[in-house]
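Re: your question from the hallway

Yes, I did run it. Sequences:
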Amino acid sequence: GVKLPAELERKMGLLKSSQVLPAPSDAAKREELTQLAAELEGMYGRGKYCPPAKPTECMDIGQLSAVLTTSRDPQELETAWAGWHSISRPMRGKYQRFVELANEGAKELGYANLGELWRSKYDMQPDAFAAELDRLWGQVKPLYDSLHCYVRARLTATYGKEVVPPGAPIPAHLLGNMWAQQWGGIYDLVKPANAVLPGFDLTTQLKAKGVDELGMVRYGEGFFSSLGFAKLPATFWERSMFIKPRDRDVVCHASAWDIDQKDDLRIKMCIEINEEDFSTIHHELGHNYYQRAYNGKSTLFLDSANDGFHEALGDTVALSVTPAYLKTLGLIDQEPPAEADIALLLQTALDKVAFLPFGLTIDKWRWEVFSGKIPPAQYNQAWWELKRKYQGVAPPAARSETDFDPGAKFHVPGNTPYMRYFLADVLQFQFHRALCQTAGQKGPLHRCSIYGSEAAGDKLGAMMEM
Ligand code: ASP
Ligand code: SER
Ligand code: ZN
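Structure:
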């Protein structure tokens, strides 16, 4: 109840809300929670599926993801999907205990449960934040419904009515991605009949030009340099992990790190030479440039306005990876003509529009798990009810409460809040539009690249610094 100066009040609030995993004060429980968090993330990192027919040829998430993106055989797709979703079964009991202990920590800080803590970081009441998300989803849902309807029809045409029944949820293994979260992998199945995008398959072009893992990262750095940002420090190149190690298991899920709150910036990922990772590199570097931009602030303020901003930054820059930009780099020879716009927009929609309901459901599930509305006995069933309701997808194989499908998505065992990605999926288009205006670009937004615009870079830098 004490009235404090605004800055101090904000700092006091941040001391409570900035943790994503508050530990209970009891020493034994703190240790137990720490162990569980490490075990769950370790189980995800070690996750492998070993086919019964070839028990020595185990597949990791990189290999299984490649199957989901490239195979067009429903049986092979289902095996890869079910294989990966079997790695999380043993997480179930641990996750249940993890929730109990994390909730205790949140309660000690004055929150009803961990979900309320997570919702309290958006400069509005936790309930108002939940309502705002529903409002946003209501605005974009018609676009998703159209995409869903169109894609399902094309999948029915490809696989037949038995595999993809019209009027029913889309089987989740047919969308080109292990979690059905971005659908760009099936562009070839759904592209407009007359769509010619000459030389626009970036994966093919990257491979043809012999671009390696570090070369991919250099393209990312080059974009930020063109906006006027200083180059990454030598330590970034020495200390990052760009390539999957041969001699040990690691968590391959890409992440960005700020080790000393100054300039020891790093990324950790198992880079593959393809379009998706080209974009993910920009995503991760966005975190690093953001971290560096605000490094002069006091400790509690070393963060973005909210976590949606942090996730949006690199994606915003990646929206400028247009055909014109790729031509500048010499990665494609020809810019597709204006007639290719529908195809280009569809390509973007497959990733960015498809992601919207996915981004929403992960924490709709977790919030109810933390509040107890979803009891452990219904973890998996409730997960698929949410997926069906928002994404309109269904599991390809029978599920039961011995499964723990949420654990097959990194952010659940990794305890990373997920609403930030839904917010970022909206914010990045607002940022892109504003930056394109600043850069003085006149054409349609989807053809705009802010590459080389120091005016846009200045504005972006000024925002990140705050
Ligand atoms: N770290 C990113 C996401 O989870 C990038 C990715 O792997 O897609 O936040
Ligand atoms: N990077 C996040 C994920 O992999 C959002 O795209 O889920
Ligand atoms: Zn991120």
